[in-house]
Design a protein that fits this description.
Layout (H helix, E strand, L loop, with lengths): L1 H87 L1
Length: 89
């Protein structure tokens, strides 16, 4: 009977050890799930910000191109006025 009691006690100890290990692994898993949720949220926010940045960059590019065209037009007008001025002298 002593051997059976020893086996039962060994199983109880092993069972208790496994429960403690399981609790630790569950805690670790919960922590990793929280980290994953945070990273997913950060990624979503970054994608939103990048989308807004892309829209802003596009607007600035269009404004720049418009200003370049205006500058070129003004340079042509200045050259024309300088030519007319030289002709009138």
């Amino acid at each position: 009977m002593g051997r059976t009691e020893d086996q039962a006690e060994t199983r109880k100890v092993e069972n208790a050890r496994l429960r403690v290990e399981l609790a630790g692994l569950r805690e670790q898993n919960d922590g990793l799930n929280r980290q994953r949720a945070q990273v997913t949220e950060d990624l979503h926010n970054m994608r939103d910000r990048n989308g807004a940045d892309y829209i802003e960059i596009d607007k600035l590019t269009q404004t720049h191109e418009m200003r370049v065209r205006e500058s070129n037009d003004l340079n042509q007008r200045i050259k024309g006025l300088e030519y007319d001025l030289q002709k009138s002298l």
